[in-house]
């Protein structure tokens, strides 16, 4: 039964990583234009500008992947790791939106902001999602492994009682279930023997008579 949960976890993981990769691929052209700064096409500066975004993205992907693996084992990363992640995410956002802010176009700002922000959110969510889905599998496995509780003696007595049980049989069941701290009442008799209401009064009287001095 845990297989569907694990299958969903794999699907969620793949979808999140696909979204992150597509978002980074979209930002690559914007970063290249930002770094080229109007250089001639196929010039050295124009060609070298294509290296800027992969340089930042590969570092970011390495950090995200490492965080995902360590989170499965309950290991927290240090401050430098988180600083590197947020620096690379912030650098990607600034380089993507710089020209849009400079042009003063709200539409371009939104267009160039969405992919980096999706990467931001997915980067934080993918590790937590994988961790929670792994916890769900562990909880399900633990519940399945728990042994079923055996029925109590009182429930066993009820199970063995049947409509043809005699007065003495009912009295024996009640006598076996009675403890020193129990107050014998018709309601208690009905609880332990499941006899009828009329019979419970007689059984309670008989059992109380046995313990009276």
TrEMBL record:
Keywords: Membrane, Transmembrane, Transmembrane helix
Domain of life of the native organism: Bacteria
Transmembrane segments: 12-31
Name of this protein: Uncharacterized protein
